Amino acid sequence: MKRVCLSLATALAFAAPVDAAPVPLLAPGDVVVYRARAGDTLYTLARLYCTGISVVGTLQQLNHVRDPYRIPVGRELRIPRELLRFTPVTLRLASFSGPVTMAGSVNQPRLGQVLAEGDRLATGPNGFVLIAGSDGSKLALPSNSTARIGRARHYLLVDADDLAVALDGGRGEIQAAHQKPQGRFQLQTPVAVSAVRGTRFRASYEAQAGSATTGVTEGLVAVSAGATELGIPAGQGAVASRDGALRQEALLGAPGVPRAGRVQTEPTVDFTVAPAAGAAGYHLLLARDAGFTDLIGEVETKSSTASFSDVANGSYFLRASAIAPSGLEGQAETYAFRRQRVGLKADVGQVAIPGALRFNWLVEGEGKSIFRFQLFAASGTTPLIDEAGLAQPGLTLTGLKPGAYRWRVGVIQTVPEGSAEVWSPLNTFNFGG
């Protein structure tokens, strides 16, 4: 079973980035354990795998080694990580959208940019960032979040990676690749550290309420607050408060989104979430891919409706989850849908021909359009006139008898990705005496 150690006194604080105390790269006493092999000496280890022979005295004292030239085979040596020689682990800016700022080795975000230790990324409203490691680990930052690269190292001595990202504000969603025995992925905040060995979880902190949440979607997380520690498995979560209280609760199930897969033709992309028992709100994400690495929209709402604007034509994915009163985000469900903007405006007026009416309509959108016109008696349900396959907008009718009528026009618009059908509302008019 995969296990994560997560300390939450008031975890994942939304501290302002400029005021947040720097998170040290390595805590004092942070060590790896190395089992000595034939021919090893403290001097050879220091020269080949540490920062130099100047550390021999420290290693000798820490491990109670009498003779630095003689180490029994199999002897375990504790070596501080800050003394180890390393090569950089590649972390890249895999994707981003919306307002994103960067500070550090490079001040302008660029797709594929390699991130160095100390680089800071910040997202604004409706801004998103995905950081990807060469080991397969990923950190997604949603809107209004700030993260800093603390460590990105591969230790030669134990052939393991050591990655750390400091979350100075906002939220993060982590997919940590499975690490070798001496490897790890850490998510650090000014008040807590999540030491990950291969799992998926989400974390949040509500500064005003002083409560922190951890929701586990894969693996096992050990959550501690004060003197209390809970092992949180997948499908469960933990809520910690500033007074040190810690409790476990089940994640809410994923909410349903009726008709989520329909073709979205209106000016805005709208969804209605089916009310979920126990939910205080809902979180919806919009992305171009099913892995939600290319995010374009985010809505967190207490109502059951969500709207996304400025969505171009194309194929998209929606992810919806319910939020408990505690702030714990529940399980998520993903839906695929297609966006094809189609608009249709219609009106009716008289023409110079006696006893004739002209029906006009204007279509908005891309692709080839085929129209259909229908005319009904005011109280009828079967069309008196049903003209399909019209290639041009507009139709003139003659010979209508006096009376009350209803009418509408529809359009089927086809693009390479598919077709969408839109109808105007039923309009009424009275003709003749």
Walk me through what this model shows:
The radius of gyration is 31 Å and the shape is elongated. Helix content is 4%, strand content 51%. Strands 1, 4, 6, 8, 11, 12, 14, 15, 18 and 19 form a ten-stranded mixed beta sheet that branches. Strands 7-5-9-10-13-16-17-20-21 form a nine-stranded antiparallel beta sheet, with no helix packed on it. Strands 30, 31, 33, 34 and 35 form a five-stranded antiparallel beta sheet that branches. The protein folds into four domains: 4-22 and 87-250, Jelly Rolls (Sandwich); 31-85, LysM domain (Membrane-bound Lytic Murein Transglycosylase D, Chain A), CATH 3.10.350; 269-339, Sandwich (Immunoglobulin-like); 342-431, Immunoglobulins (Immunoglobulin-like, Sandwich), CATH 2.60.40. The protein is mainly β. The chain starts with a strand and ends with a strand. A hairpin with a 4-residue loop joins strand 9 (128-133) and strand 10. Residues 1-21 have low confidence and may be disordered. It contains two helices and 35 strands.
Can you lay out the helices and strands and say which pair or pack?
Layout: E1 4-7, E2 31-35, H1 42-49, H2 56-63, E3 76-80, E4 86-88, E5 91-97, E6 100-103, E7 114-115, E8 120-123, E9 128-133, E10 138-141, E11 146-155, E12 160-169, E13 172-175, E14 184-188, E15 193-196, E16 200-206, E17 211-218, E18 220-225, E19 228-233, E20 236-241, E21 246-250, E22 269-272, E23 281-287, E24 295-301, E25 305-308, E26 314-323, E27 329-339, E28 342-350, E29 357-365, E30 368-377, E31 385-390, E32 395-397, E33 403-415, E34 418-423, E35 427-431
Parallel strand pairs: 1-18, 12-14
Antiparallel strand pairs: 1-15, 2-3, 4-11, 5-7, 5-9, 6-8, 8-11, 9-10, 10-13, 11-12, 13-16, 14-15, 16-17, 17-20, 18-19, 20-21, 22-25, 23-24, 23-26, 26-27, 28-29, 29-32, 30-31, 30-33, 33-34, 33-35
